[in-house]
Specification:
- By secondary structure, the protein is α+β, with helices and mostly antiparallel strands.
- The protein folds into three domains: 184 residues, no CATH class; 99 residues, PDZ domain (Pdz3 Domain), CATH 2.30.42.10; 375 residues, 2-enoyl-CoA Hydratase, Chain A, domain 1 (Alpha-Beta Complex), CATH 3.90.226.
- The longest helix is centred in the first third of the chain and has 24 residues.
- It is globular.
Length: 746
Amino acid sequence: MKKQMLLAAISLAILSAYGHAAPADKAATEQLKPAAQQTQAALWASRVLSRYHYKAQPLDDAMSEKIYDRYFKSLDAEKLFFVQADLDKYAGAKARLDDAIVGENLQMPFDIYNLYQQRFNERIAYARELLKTKPDFTLDESYQYDREKAEWTRSEAEVKELWRKRVKNDWLRLKLAGKDDKAIRETLDKRYENYLGRSRKLNSEDVFQIFMNAYAMSIEPHTNYLGPRASDNFDIQMRLSLEGIGAVLQTRDEYTVIREIVTGSPAGMSGKLKVGDRIVGVAQGDNGAITDVLGWRIDDVVQQIRGPKDSKVRLQVLPGDAGPDAKPVMIALTRKKISMEEQSAKKTIMEVKDGTVKRRIGVISLPTFYQDFEARRRGDKDYKSATRDVARLLAELKKDKVDNVLIDLRNNGGGSLTEAVELTGLFIDKGPVVQQRSAEGRVEVENDTLPGLAWDGPIGVLINRGSASASEIFAAAVQDYGRGIVIGEPSFGKGTVQTLISLDRFAQDKDKARLGELKMTVAQFFRINGGTTQLRGVTPDIKLPQLSDAENFGESSYDNALPYTVIKPAVYIPAGEVKDIVPLLTKKHEARVAKDKDFQFLVDDVNYVKKQRKENLISLNEKDRRKERDEQEARAKQRDARLAAAPSADDPILVPDPTAKNAITPKPAGAKQAKQAAASMKGVSRTDDGLQGDERSLAAELEAEKAAKNAKDVLLLEAVHIMSDEVSLLKTDTRLASRVLPYAER
């Protein structure tokens, strides 16, 4: 499945996020129906989209056919449930979904969903029946694990054969992990039962959102419909704060489990809640009745726990180490504003040995371009902002006397356009940053208007395929101004601008309306050199291995992406010229990684994954799979041996920040410490255990995540080396320095 395809992601994320099963007899017969408010939302959304979208298209029979195709694919992205006859049954709907929206009668798309639910139940029931048999693993069979581009199965016999191989693969994975037949049957039966439970918890709001996104994304990939709850969550992500107790929750079996506690939050300050505790009831205020939340969807539980600042909530909690029959305890907490610091900008300092001297490279990691829009509108002088946070970190790095700064934008999917412009302004002395073209063809230039720089030294920008939108604006501006060096893999290629439009403004009863929002594309942005990042993304000056699947991830993977175009360049004065230094850095980079075993391991892994993606088949023969597993384990042992060895004297060393609340431990500097680090990885699965996330213990899952965070980031370390090389070249060649760093020369 394309990871970035929002339609498929919405349906699958809903399935994976919503806990365990409701009673089977109730859910199996329930037919979901559209609500009156949803039909009203669909009508107004269609009027806005067909008139004001950047690529406005009428809602007609041609659009109806696109919606029909995308809706079926969004429900069944891997083509595991529907058969061709199901699509044929609703062939008449192909040209009538537009009429359904305009006529405010959405029963047809809901009927399609109800058929999907029926097929889902049938396929899972068949999978559970197969567990009563025992597969033959001596046969030479294979299973196609990615079926997004496959044809729909033509018959019941064909789809059953598909599920037979799917179950056989699930069984074989567990068998190779050492489980016996009894344990395998129990694990898989519970897994398939959980699939049913999650599916049955979808409600009409979920179905409506999936259908409306089939419409919105048929116009253009980055136009989406956000239901009321999704709209609230989007707002939280942008301002990086919410009002609640400061606990990250997760569903495990029937329980809502505490997965993480935010430091300094009401949950953390109370000292009464621990990771692994299970919330079974929620009550409001001092005297509110307790609501039993056992078996609830996680978002419904969250809705109960969140609330206005300074209000009280009481939680009925089963301690994590207590049995299911233990007596729950009641814990009262007062809600506060919670800052999501994990998504805020952060700095570290890496020290690189360069002959007899040490270069200090400041690394700023920015996960998203966030801004608390409402606080800024209110005039709050302390409003949350990515640019303000980065400016503060740059001031700290100046005091730390770093030689170079690297901005890490890997997997930063964008956010506020204003923040992208203002962040660029920290590194240039006024001037245009990005151009916007509206649907009418009007071009506006977004400028940095503030004189002065927060950092006038050398900079680098680290990107990957997950760097999109605002990240690409920043990286492109740095590149066009010659202000710094872009390192990594080509970025996503999203060159469009979206705005949020509340549909509540069109409601008949505005006080009670909750119609949701449209995140709608209204403009396309262009680089100041006249080109665009649309479709092509930002091409790095120095390329690192491409970890992502470019064919299935990125703007170019969408079938209806806007084309690449060019407009007139803006008037700007380059801040520097890096073309002379890039070849020198590239030569040093290539010589270094050719000798770096960790880097070569990474390259081998990338090539191995590319080969698997291309083949898109996995053997169901036990002998063949064991051979493949043994080869993978041998590769893992090589890496463990490498980790246990003393690190290279040239490896960048992480400098701990004594002022940080959770100071980062420095990278091990000797063989003894390296072996201790390797030993800490034991117990963390390096090979396939055949399990899914919620089938592992919470402790094992958290330990694996911790190990992943602590794993050596080969690409970051190489980028730091490149930054250090740049400093060395600039210090030894004054002519080169004057071209690359004109700001610093003034």
